[in-house]
Amino acid sequence: MGIAEDWAELMFSLDCLSKGHAKRKFRKSIKYGWGGLCCYCRSNRATTLDHVKPKCKGGDSLRSNLLPACQCCNHSKGSQHWLTWFQKQPFYNETAKELIEEWITNKRFIEEELDERSTDNRTEVCFTESAV
């Protein structure tokens, strides 16, 4: 199936999954993708989702534009560019920056898809007639 980029993609069986439940599941999957912690400070529980590109600047609510954040970090960042804000914080570190950039570009999921496609398929179709 790949990655759900939008919460609406999780609405595949309306008998079992309501719109609200699909949205909660989508948001929870983002938070748990970071171990339930704020992607910025990594010390507080992520209770909100931060829009990488703020909605007021044309950002959407796609998975690649949402990061789990604690209330304090999300409020402090406001509508600033995430990297500009993050680099000014006392808890800034390069590894966290790289992980956020990988999340934004969906790098992990693209690599997983490529790995699945490049698995060694040992079956081969033979069009020549066999002597057996």
Order of helices and strands: HEEHHHH
In which order are the strands of the major sheet placed?
A: 1-2
Shape: globular
What's the N-to-C terminus distance?
A: 40 Å
Structural class: mainly alpha
Which residues form runs of ≥5 with pLDDT under 50? Answer: none
Can you describe what's shown?
With 132 residues, the chain is mostly helical. The protein has a domain at 38-106. Helices cover 37% and strands 6% of the residues. It contains five helices and two strands; from the N terminus they run αββαααα. Strands 1-2 form a two-stranded antiparallel ribbon. The model has no long low-confidence stretch (mean pLDDT 83).
Keywords:
132 residues; mainly alpha; two-stranded antiparallel sheet
Short description:
This protein has 132 residues and is mainly α. 37% of the residues lie in helices and 6% in strands.
Outline the secondary-structure elements.
Layout (H helix, E strand, L loop, with lengths): L18 H14 L15 E4 L14 E4 L1 H7 L4 H6 L6 H11 L2 H11 L15
Antiparallel strand pairs: 1-2
